[in-house]
Amino acid sequence: MIKTTSKGQMFLPNVGKYKPFSITYDEIDNETIQLDIVGYGCINYFDQLDKEIELEINININNQLKDYTELTGHDSSEIEYSLNLKPTKILNRQYNTLEAGVEMSIVFKKPVQNASTYQLQPTIELISSMVLAEIFITQ
Asked: Which residues of 114-129 are buried (b: 16+ CB within 10 A; e: fewer)?
């Protein structure tokens, strides 16, 4: 019998010199999981972060969540997120893009009732990587 926990942490790759994005997940109740993502990396846009770019990022994230629905059959309308980007004025010469930090929370209804967070780790990783890849250059 596998013992599961309701909390955990995983890491998603980031480029070059940066640490991986840290993802802390927590089971809020029997139906909901919250992901808290923290990291720093090279944004996937060549322009300075402004309201237009942030709008484009949100549109692209929502498009990715729609693709997630088509890929998995899970309902992406049950996924909510809040995004806090912390842009810097540092230009990464290797990728010719600006660097930024991120603090993000994603809350989603479990696609499978009564599944443990351990069983949902592939879903957690998929949702996190799809969202982060819309903002940052990842490996």
From this structure: ebbbeebeebbbebbb
Cα–Cα distance for residue pair 110/18, rounded to 1 Å: 31
- The tokens of 4 are what? 């599961």
Cβ count near 131 (within 10 Å) = 25
Say if CB 124 and CB 97 are below 8 A apart.
Answer: no
């600006």: which residue's tokens?
98
Residue whose token pair is 């290797």? 94
User: What is the pTM assigned to this prediction?
Assistant: 0.87
* Under 8 Å between Cβ of 35 and 23: yes
Q: What percentage of the chain carries pLDDT values higher than 70?
A: 96
